[in-house]
Amino acid sequence: MGCPSPVLVWSAPESRGGLPVAPARALAPTACHRAPAPAPRNRAVRPCRPGPNGHFWAVSYCFATPPPSPEIRPVNTSTQGNDYYALLARHDAMRLRRQLLSPGALSPRDDSPALAPGPDDADRRLIRRELPLVTPFEDLITHLYEVMFRRWPYLRSLFPESMAFQREHLARMFHYLTENLDHPDEVAATFTRLGRDHRKLGVRPAHYEAFEAALCEALKIRAGERWSAELEGAWLRMLRAAVDAMVAGADAAIGEPPSWHAVVVAHELRRPGLAVLRVRTHEAYPYRAGQYAAVESPLLPHAWRHYSMACAPRADNVVEFHVRQTGTGGVSEALVRRTGVGDTLRLGPAKGQMTLGGELTRDLLLVAGGTGLAPLKALLQEVSARPSGHRLVHLAVGARNRADLYDGDWLADLESRRPWLRVVPVLGDESTIRGGGTVLDALRRQDGGWSNRTAYVSGPPAMVAATVARLTEMGLPAGRIHHDPLPHAPRHAAAPAHRR
Ligand SMILES: NC(=O)C1=CN([C@@H]2O[C@H](COP(=O)(O)OP(=O)(O)OC[C@H]3O[C@@H](n4cnc5c(N)ncnc54)[C@H](O)[C@@H]3O)[C@@H](O)[C@H]2O)C=CC1
């Protein structure tokens, strides 16, 4: 499921969308940004003046200024700081106003110079040929963060305490970019979505600049003597195309909040280490049944993890999540053990394609493993609420044992009221003769004409991968097997699941 939100993995709480600073390209005049980054100066953004199109433009960056986020800025903000935040708000308001007055007229980067051209054929060849120089990406990323935090120490405070998740995610991003050099449209679409998602992190053009400069230095360190200006230029063109798409995605989403504050209205510890939470968002939270969202707990600032909404959208803005604690010190533990009614959380924008089409043209096969039930429960609610013409729905729910079937009562109740629904629990500690084993065993045991159905699969990644393979063997075309992106799958690396 879903993408670990941060791609360039900034973690500051406020929207980037439309910061009144000059766009990256204006400050990075050539494709190859090898000049040393601006020396820290004790000043924020210089006073802005309206540009030719009525926008405010800043004329300089300062990486040494405090992070531009209301939640982490010093309490005693100076007048200059207040001006800065007022400018941010004003700029966003102006952009939003223009968008509302003439929808569609505001192109994502209409206040910036031309979009980055992206890597050309020679760049692509060079990046591929020289990949061994800069891989494993984990090493490159170690250098990158070292450089970045050394040169701009304040940026460290924008990241969560543990960087493991960030490193892992960034490595996946580099894999994704380098593996998809021949698919620029797909990459642009992915990074546009990511830009929308990153608004919750407060990513700013100045951050991209710092990232870019740190990447250049890291490439140089990693490639050693074999570093070349051509290689760096190729990498920068690849990066800038992605960054441009992110900025476009953030700009296009300026009409929605960067994140939604929610208060916990119910917290049930259904099993040891497994909680069902219900939260009420302050504003309407737009999503579709089957989607997921990044969730942040104030107990672990800047650490966002994905959970699926376990109910169809409701009029009272209540959203349900199912969380299993998988270790200690992570977001899931914070949500399961240290969160209660009245606590607040933040939700990022909803994502994911595991949704129902308009008209159900086929019967459905739903396959859940553990808390992977969450999005399928939301789908069941949506199907159930449709006025007429129900298709048959078969739900196989894998659980470790009967006690682990944490939402069995709700399922049994729905099944008793909906003749089109069949729920089959598959218990890991029971013999396959008695109907136990894994969900895969269950699919093998009984072929209910699965190849004619549309399938939705959700659970541990290994289970999802095995189930998809099994259903494909059975003749179900890929277009009719829906699941959230799997981690480390090369063509889906931009959006793997992370719930920890
Ligand atoms: N909490 C949420 O909102 C969502 C969670 N998920 C994912 O679902 C998973 C849930 O984890 P747990 O509840 O601990 O599940 P689990 O590890 O207890 O597994 C539950 C059941 O899934 C099946 N299963 C597991 N591994 C399998 C394999 N390799 N092959 C075939 N069947 C297998 C078995 O029937 C097992 O009893 C996590 O990986 C989570 O990321 C997915 C979507 C939403």
Question: What does the model show?
Answer:
- Residues 257-357 form the FAD-binding FR-type domain.
- Residues 102-122, 479-500 are annotated as: Disordered.
- This protein is α/β, with parallel strands linked by helices and 500 residues long.
- The chain is built from 14 helices and 13 strands.
- The protein folds into 3 domains: 24-252, Globin-like (Orthogonal Bundle); 260-347, Elongation Factor Tu (Ef-tu), domain 3 (Beta Barrel); 364-483, Rossmann fold.
- The protein has a 6-stranded antiparallel beta sheet with strand order 6-5-8-3-4-7. It has a 5-stranded parallel beta sheet with strand order 11-10-9-12-13, sandwiched between helices.
Counted up, domains total 3
**Which word captures the global form?**
globular
Mean pLDDT: 79
Radius of gyration: 24 Å
CATH architectural arrangement of the largest domain: Orthogonal Bundle
Number of strands: 13
Q: What's the order of the H and E elements?
A: HEEHHHHHHHHEEEEEHEEHEHEHEHE
CATH topology of the largest domain: Globin-like
CATH class of the largest domain: Mainly Alpha
Helix content: 25-40%
Provide a count of the helices.
14
Q: What is the CATH homology-level superfamily of the largest domain? A: Globins
Strand percentage, roughly? 5-15%
Distance between the termini: 13 Å
The bound ligands are: 1,4-dihydronicotinamide adenine dinucleotide
> What structural class do you assign from the helix and strand content?
alpha/beta
Strand order of the largest sheet: 6-5-8-3-4-7
Reported for the largest beta sheet, the result is: 6 strands, antiparallel
Catalytic activity: 2 nitric oxide + NADPH + 2 O2 = 2 nitrate + NADP(+) + H(+); 2 nitric oxide + NADH + 2 O2 = 2 nitrate + NAD(+) + H(+)
Family: In the C-terminal section; belongs to the flavoprotein pyridine nucleotide cytochrome reductase family.
Keywords: 2Fe-2S, Iron, Iron-sulfur, Metal-binding, NAD, NADP
InterPro entries: Cbr1-like_FAD-bd_dom (IPR008333), FAD-bd_FR_type (IPR017927), FNR_nucleotide-bd (IPR039261), Globin (IPR000971), Globin-like_sf (IPR009050), Globin/Proto (IPR012292), MRET (IPR050415), OxRdtase_FAD/NAD-bd (IPR001433)
